[in-house]
Amino acid sequence: MKILAIESSCDETAAAVVENGRKVLSSVVASQVEEHKLYGGVVPEIASRRHAEAIVPVVRQALDDADVILKDIDAIAVTYAPGLIGALLVGVNFAKGLSLSTGIPLVPTHHLRSHIASNYISNQELKPPFLCLVVSGGHSHIVMVEDYTKMKIIGRTRDDAAGEAFDKAARTMGMSYPGGIELDRVAEGGNPLAFKLPRPVVHDAPYDFSFSGLKTAVINLIHNSAQKGVEINKADVCASFRYAVVDCLTTNFLRAAKDLNVNKLVIAGGVSANSLLRKTLADECARLGCEFYMPDKSLCGDNAAMVGSQGYYEFISGNVADTDLNAFATMSIE
Q1: Is residue 39 one of the residues assigned to a domain?
Q2: Alpha-carbon distance 194 to 238, whole Å?
Q3: Is the distance from CB of 133 to CB of 249 less than 8 angstroms?
Q4: How many domains does the chain contain in total?
Q5: For a designed S-S bond to 14, which of 29, 185, 192, 333 qualifies (C-beta 3.0 to 4.6 A apart)?
Q6: What percentage of the chain has pLDDT greater than the value 90?
C-alpha cells in the first residue's frame, strides 16, 4: 500500500511516498530556514506564502522520485494539526483538492503522532506498546503509545517546550536561527558542570516538565555577565544549559518508565537529534536493561516520510476524512 504524504505545519514544505508504513520510496523537503534566519525565527505569513509556492513542485518531485503516478497511490495523508494555522491550511487544502479530483482517500494525520512514527522507518522491528519522549520546538511530551493510533499523555511541559528553550538561549548568545542545533555543536567543547542551573520541578505532577525558569536563568546569566563586563565561556554556558535540559527530560522520562513498568523506550521530535540526549538515554537504557529506539537524525526534523508512516496506520484503522477537513493550530495527540 502506497501513501502520498504532505507536511506543511511550520517552515518545511515536504512530500513523500511511503509503502506499508515502513519503506520510504521518496522524501522531498523544501526548507525555508535561510529566509527565516533574517528574522530570528519563523514568520507565519511568510511561511504560508512559501508553502503555497513550493507545494506543487515538491509533490511532483516526490511522485517522480518514487517512480509512481497518482493512480498508484492508495491514500493521501496530510498533517492537519497541530502547527501554524496558515501553513497547515496550505497542505490541507492542497490534499483535499487532490483527493477530490482523483477519488483517492484523504487521511488526516497528527503532527506529533507522525514524529513518533519516524521510528517505524528507522527501526523496522519496533512495534507498540512503548513509552515515547516527544521533544521539539513546540512540544515536550511523555506519551504511552498503546497501539499505532491509540496514545495517552503521561507528562507534558507546563510552559516552554525544550526545543523553544534551546532556541531562545542560543539566540541570547548571538546564534542564528535555528539556534538549538548550533548550541548543541558548541556545547561539545564546554564543561557541563561550569555553571549551576536550576532543575524546575512540577510538584503535583512528577512527569511534567517546566523549562521557563531554566531558560530565564541562563538568559539572566548571560545578560548579567554582559552588564558587568565579565566575559563568560560560551561553550561552558552551552554545555551547562544542555546538560540541565537533558537532565530534566531524562529524569522524568525514566521515572515514568519505572513507575509504569515499561522497558521499551523511544524518543522522537526535533530535539531527539540532540547528541547528549541520544547518548544519555542510550547509556541509561543499556544500564537498566531497557530497549531503546531513536529515529535517524535525518528524520528528527519535520518531513513527510514520517507523515506517510503514521498515515498508513491511520488509514488501515479507518481514519478517513471528507472534503470538509479543517486544520487546527492545537490538538491533543490523544
Answers
A1: yes
A2: 10
A3: yes
A4: 2
A5: 29
A6: 90
Residue 279: C-alpha distances to residues 51, 246, 273 (Å)? 35, 10, 10
Residue 180's pLDDT band (boundaries 50, 70, 90)?
A: confident
Residue pointed to by grid coordinates 529515529: 295
Query: Is 199 a member of any domain?
Result: yes
Smallest CA-to-CA distance from 197 within 159, 245, 158 is with 245
Residue 44 has pLDDT above 90, yes or no: yes
- Amino acid 93: pLDDT: 98
pLDDT of 262 strictly over 90:
yes
Task: Average the pLDDT over each of 28-37, 238-247, 259-268 and give the range with the smallest value.
Answer: 28-37
183-199 tens-digit pLDDT: 999 999 999 999 999 99
* Domain that includes residue 16, residue range: 2-116+300-316
Are 137 and 52 in the same domain? no
Query: Residue 170's pLDDT is what?
Result: 92
Asked if residue 334 is part of any domain, the answer here is no
User: Dihedral of CA 215/179/155/261: which sign?
Assistant: negative
pLDDT at 258 (0 to 100): 97
For residue 246, the number of C-alpha atoms closer than 13 Å in the C-beta half-sphere is 23
Over residues 131-144, mean pLDDT: 94
In this prediction the pTM is 0.95
CATH code where residue 14 lies:
3.30.420.40
